[in-house]
Amino acid sequence: MGEEERDQVKPLASYSSPSPSLHIEEDRAISGQLRFRRRRQIQCCGCITAILLILIVTILVLGFTVFNVKEPELTMNGITLVNGTLLGNNTGITLVADISVKNPNSYSFRYRNSTTTISFDGTAIGEGRIPAGKAKARRTVRLNVTVANLGIPSLLRDDRVLNISTYTRVDGKVKMLYLFNKRVVVKTNCTVDYNLDTASSQGSNCQTTVDI
């Protein structure tokens, strides 16, 4: 065999299988990556769960505080009767009702034009107008409602204490976070004893209902 043939024919390189230590290192690297990914997934799930819990707690707190609309209160503080001649005119009896609107909420209570109806012996004898307004958060607004030309025939009787009834309806809304409106309707029935001799009311008894 010539030299050229000997150069062309060369023995093949022997195949050697990867060493076991190399497989172990690869397995360790893959296992480490899986553990890292699993740890990241657990951390993400934990963060999402914590955020959801915070949102739920916040909603519950707001529901029991800010978004929990409390009932506004209407109170009849007293009434005053004035003869028209004392006012310099020829009108009949004028009644002035002193009414309080208390707003216990964290937001303003805005009410529309409202009315107060005056009754005597079960008969309506006049109606007063309450102009639209606002009761600020945790404040009380006092209103004077005037009803003129009342015809009270019992003024000529010997009974000097008049039992007068009033019915007031206030329709309004509470605006929460300047975004959400909650409609509120307050209705109050009051009875007041008015002493003609002392020209003063002797207390009142009121029953109030609130629709929210």
What is the general shape? Answer: rod-shaped
Number of DSSP strands? 10
* Helix proportion: 10-25%
Give the helix/strand class: alpha+beta
| CA-based gyration radius | 42 Å
Q: Any overview of this molecule?
A:
This protein is of the alpha+beta class. The protein is built from two helices and ten strands, in the order H-H-E-E-E-E-E-E-E-E-E-E. The protein has helices at 3-8, 20-64, and strands at 73-82, 93-103, 109-111, 114-120, 123-130, 133-135, 139-150, 161-176, 180-195, 200-211. Strands 3, 4, 5, 6, 8, 9 and 10 form a seven-stranded antiparallel beta sheet that branches. A hairpin with a 2-residue loop joins strand 4 and strand 5 (123-130). Mean pLDDT is 77; it is low at 85-90.
